[in-house]
Amino acid sequence: MNPQAVGREPGRGPRSLLAKTWHWLDENIEYWLNFVFYSFLTSIIVIEVFRRYVLNSSTVYGEEVARYAFIWLAYIATARGIRNRSHLSIENIRGKMGRTGKFVLYLVSDACFLTLAVIIVVTSIRMVSSGIQFDQRMTGADLPIWIATGAIPVAWSLIGLRVIQRSLVTIRNFRAGRPIEAGTLVPAE
Question: Model-level pTM?
Fold first, then answer.
């Protein structure tokens, strides 16, 4: 018996906690970010409607902040769709191919998505950094514009990560002889 393992239960300790936390984040980050942005967006809209129609007054920043929250929401939701392969795609060609053909098309599709993600992240980082450098502000809300434009590199980095993850699962499933059409990042049983 391993002397270091004496008195320890499996799955206990800081490594296990870190692994569990990482797994939870991996499974739920898009869901909870979308929940936060959707709640924020809904709250702002309800408050602004109340202010406009009941109090006959509205804020300058309400519409703008709601718009940027919606942008964050949409980009993060895109990452969730990429993660589960639930985005729009053309299945006609892939559906008529054999297992190896499907595998190759999935990998080509993932390579195209990853290339697009890298291009968008690189160019959007330039845009965000110029907003920081020149201290650009939102029009209605006196907030830095990088808070809004930061959605692009953050979400597309997450999209790139999800594409890499699903490619690895696709390769693992193909090598193990399991179905490769599985939509989630969890390897098919």
Answer: 0.76
- Angle of helix 151-176 versus helix 62-83 axis, rounded to 10: 10
Rg (CA), the chain: 22
Return the sign of the alpha-carbon dihedral for residues 107, 109, 110, 114.
positive
State the average pLDDT for the chain: 84
Which long-range CB contacts under 8 A does 37-42 form with residues at least 24 apart? Answer: 37/69, 37/70, 37/72, 37/73, 37/76, 38/73, 40/69, 41/66, 41/69, 41/70, 41/73
Q: Are 74 and 154 in contact (CB under 8 A)?
A: no
Mean local confidence (pLDDT), 37-61: 90
Residue 137 to residues 7, 41, 65, 133: CA-CA distances in angstroms? Answer: 58, 20, 12, 11
Structure tokens at 142: 């006196």
